[in-house]
Amino acid sequence: MDGKVKKGFLWGTASAAYQCEGGWNEGGKGESNWDQFCHGPKNVKGYTGDVAADFYHRYKEDIRLLKEGGHNTLRFSISWTRILPDQSGKVNPEGVAFYKDVLKECRENGITPNVTLLHYDIPAWLEDLGGYANPIFSDEFAKYCKVVFEQFGNEIPLYVTINESTHNAYCSYLTGNYPPNIHNVQTLVQVCYNLVVANAKAIREFRKLNLTSQVGIVHTTNTVQILKDTPEYRIAQRRGDLFKNKWVTDPAILGKFPEDLFPLLEESGIDLSFVKPEDLDIIAHNTIDFLGQNCYTRALVKPYESGETNYYPNNVGAGQKTIEGYTVKGWFQTDVDPNTPKNAWSREIYPKTVYDMLMGIKKDYGDIPVYITENGHALYEEPDENGEVNDDERIEFLKSYLEWLIKAQNEGCNVKGYYAWSTTDCYSWINGYQKRYGLIYIDYDHDLKRIPKKSYYWYRDFIKEHTED
Ligand code: BGP
Q1: Per-residue pLDDT tens digits for 324-337
Q2: Fewest CB atoms less than 10 Å from the CB: which of 53, 209, 362, 457?
Q3: What is the pTM of this model?
Q4: Which PROSITE patterns is this protein grouped with (predicted)?
Q5: Is domain 10-465 in CATH 3.10.310.50, yes or no?
Q6: With contact defined as beta carbons under 8 Å apart, do 26 and 54 qualify?
Q7: How far is the centre of ligand 1, averaged over its atoms, from the C-alpha of 210 (Å)?
Q8: Which residue out of 164, 348, 381, 403 is catalytically annotated?
Q9: Is 278 labeled as catalytic in the residue annotation?
């Protein structure tokens, strides 16, 4: 496959505060739920983001590397507790100054910042009050967003309210591998709802300021596919799509929940008394300007057979042979295609999913601008005897996904940017540091030295060769 993307396309990489910043208690930062969890007894593996890739102290070096790598954008997130360290709501000037410096560095290096306000790390005090499950969550989140919009205004051209609300909710309230480590389907549904409301309330604050910036949400659309075309499989596919995607993207883009969602939830025994008409009104009037899509793989589903509702991630790596997946009682469960390759964390490698996803968005939502806000390949890796990291497998992965992306843009999809996950190696939630995604290697044993991998140079050349003049 050949082809180029249109001029002005954003090419970059992505990261998140807890995973790359470090400096967990520096500069007046308050404690987050991830600090609390990683320092507590439930963190059985013992890894923390206390230092991570030390972006907090080395952002200048990292941003310079991005420029040299031909990037024109960077996606990163703001740590809520760096801006508002405690419940008083008092702004931390050192936290604001840190992000102002990062933004300045981006500007001076021709890097457009794409900034996420919530990438999994909420204040520990809020977590102690029930976190996402507490109905006050959406108001607290909107208050924090208002501060960020006021402090940074048009310095940030692309704001993302929330990263992967449902994935976060499934891990936190279904699998229980993320804090607060709960398994409760009723609470899960309420959390997903609260996050939809939180997104809309944040957008309401954004609109009040009449900024020239744009605001979006980042979702991970696993395009839901089936291996058999029967009525039962098609029902499972629709239910999978509701569960995986539509209860985030429909309200964010169309301003309303899918019509079949609430009846199906009630049929499954969920008490929906937390749904409030005033929330639905806020959702209806506060929709996004663009959609961020994290794209790793598709979701293959089949009709429900047995088992309780759960999500089975693979935080073990090569030692775990079962495929990551879902069971949603009465709705659907994960299917497996034995013929496709899987990575060491049992995730299916299926490059065409980016094309299918972009085509699906075009069909369901028309021309809404889309950014692929994450796409990447996890590997166990270390430098060879020459000190080089030859990640040919990652290059193959990125190349194949990008070819499908270019094809989708050439066929009329409004995709405007692409971010490889991740900028440097960083903390992988629960997995720790052996699971690497970066285009830049971090030598954790030698002062966090940065070593651009082969994929970093490959990406630089790919950008040059595949962008229209
Ligand atoms: C996405 C998250 C990222 C990142 C990535 C890889 O879901 O938005 O923060 O972690 O997945 O996930 P993992 O590190 O679990 O492999």
Answers
A1: 899 999 999 999 99
A2: 209
A3: 0.98
A4: GLYCOSYL_HYDROL_F1_2
A5: no
A6: no
A7: 32
A8: 164
A9: no
